[in-house]
Amino acid sequence: MDEEAKITPWEVTSTTTIDYLKLIHQFGCQPIDGALVRRFEKVTKMKAHPWLRRGIFFSHKDLDLVLNAYEKGEEIYLYTGRGPSSESLHLGHMVPFMFTKYLQHALDAIVVIQMTDDEKYYFKENLSLNEANRLTRENAKDIIACGFNPKKTWIFSNLETVGGSFYRNIVQIMRHTSGNMIHGIYGLDLNNSVGQFSWPCFQAAPAFSTSFANVFAQRHVQCLVPMAIDQYPYFRMAREIAQRLGFKKPATIQSRFLPSLEHAHDKASSSGQREVIFMSDSKEVVSKKIREKAFSGGGMTKQEHIEKGANLSVDVSYHYLLYFLDSDQELKHIAHEYKAGRMMTSEVKKRATEVIWEILKEHQEARSLVSDDVVQLFMNPDREFDHSRHPKNPVVDDLEEQHLGFHFDPYFRSSC
Amino acid sequence: MDEEAKITPWEVTSTTTIDYLKLIHQFGCQPIDGALVRRFEKVTKMKAHPWLRRGIFFSHKDLDLVLNAYEKGEEIYLYTGRGPSSESLHLGHMVPFMFTKYLQHALDAIVVIQMTDDEKYYFKENLSLNEANRLTRENAKDIIACGFNPKKTWIFSNLETVGGSFYRNIVQIMRHTSGNMIHGIYGLDLNNSVGQFSWPCFQAAPAFSTSFANVFAQRHVQCLVPMAIDQYPYFRMAREIAQRLGFKKPATIQSRFLPSLEHAHDKASSSGQREVIFMSDSKEVVSKKIREKAFSGGGMTKQEHIEKGANLSVDVSYHYLLYFLDSDQELKHIAHEYKAGRMMTSEVKKRATEVIWEILKEHQEARSLVSDDVVQLFMNPDREFDHSRHPKNPVVDDLEEQHLGFHFDPYFRSSC
Which residues of A touch B174 (CB under 8 A)? Predict the structure, then answer.
């Protein structure tokens, strides 16, 4: 990561390639290597998600311990969340939810999803509490449309939920977190509001199962948190505090950032500064955005492209295919041909448009079925949650021969 | 107040007389003068409490507006609280509760009593959450024994109550309170825990009626907060925030500090550094404490006492009579005789012991009737609260001729 890169839970900017390996070291995490991906498949009896296979979820902390626990029949749960700040989610927002949905299935796990309406009220100017709370329910529809299991999923608004066992854990975290810790980790100081300053304690609490007496009673259940790597500081803090409080340390699994259309090394953002694809975009809008905005790694002229080929590492359409094109074979083919200058940017953009539109279309259909009543069902705290584990077929036939995990080069620099 | 005096919500120390008039100016409050005490009697149709008449509750903010509102038939409510840090309350702790109980009757008002188990967990080392929560219920018994109206009183533990409408208001306060405000008002900084740092926002919230949907629904009801003056900074902050949030500014009424036995100008404290009288003390213990520990303003020898008389301003037994002896006539007599050296310290101590034991005996009898079920009744949030106003006899016959309020000299320096 160059010196101008800035990675905090609220801001990700970089002028050159983000050095993810450096981030791993900086945060004290481990890379996800091929051996771990293979172990994941063996233990969960499922094929690894493309994002595991392709090094998009590239880093972890204690994922191996989670797999050990799962293997021994112990319960684990997943925690993810969303700051409701826009009417519709964009593609980048969906990455952790799509992956968590996959993990829910792979690990038969309860998922708790924190809607941080209080956080957005603290950090986003001119957002009222009521509006933050309304966006929570709108955004919950996009999340539910991913296909979470209603018997194993609780979506909750902080504004509606802080209290009881949750507040009890927040209080314990707030006592064991000093102002200097907050300043050191997040850069917040006396110029911030008390809401902003204490916010990380509210974000850390759901990583401890005792926060949710309605779901786990008093049981200490191991938590696994899937996230983009910029959120890791929260959980480094949560792990430190877990130790002091005698709680189980949350395990984590971190992804790269889905790039914005204009810049392969920025995180997609709905703040309006970068062009992104919203889940509510029409086919025409998606097509236009990719055609006009997606940064191309191809040559400036046709001649130059044929001679030098494309630079995959900065080509946003290719990045999107890396995320969303299912077929490894087709992906490899495109990488190979595009890099060699035999495939034009327009073709890659066309294919990216098709693949993305397919995802959006399915999402829009699924979301249209999510009524307010369905949202209420997912947000109802007072119901039975299904903690059982369902038998899976014991064989995964189509396991990949080789999984390189982090060491897999997503830009096919070496392999092509 | 001399330069060595230190007045914060957590600490009150002074090496000489606390200059309450200076505190009034420093905090931007008003003194309670005789005219206001008379108006209080007229509006509430009740004789002013001795602590109003004798300048013990000596300062206020907007008490006049509260009386205007009451006169117009508008509802007001009272808010007080307690940090549960000791098994039994001491006499000094009882002052705001005894006075609030009186105000509840005088103003036909709902009282909310915040038990700050979370605060004590933040600020008191080695206090566990469970212990803080247990002490809450023990201390609630002492509070209930004051005689609060169960239909008009809600006692709540923060640990059990933060959430819902209460958390919503806390969030709004936390957004509108900067770290610099907290530092400026309370001296807290990055070396404090996040719990300590954000605590004042949790203390301010009950001063806004919308925090308690269970009691007031969505109504904006004027709050009056009786307290010892060291707590005023919380409500200066609450008043500032009220303005920003469009809430009603809480009104306040402040008392002097009940002195510790050893020092007439310290605040009584249960921290163990100063000797105090606990509500659970036996007659023998009270007698021994006053005999052996209560600082005397009398002469060092009988001869000196007869010649020079007593210095009432430093005599703790006399101070206690000023608080707890009902009869103005007897108090004046004691002041006169003691100051002139015709009454001995031993006599004053004996009378103080009788008066205090009478209060303790009544309290202990009342407290023994407060079962866990009664505590539960007072702490139950889901019940009907009585917002009605009960007619009073329109005449107060025994109104004092003259009420001097703050300007009344509690040490009878001039009048004797």
Answer: 122, 193-195, 198
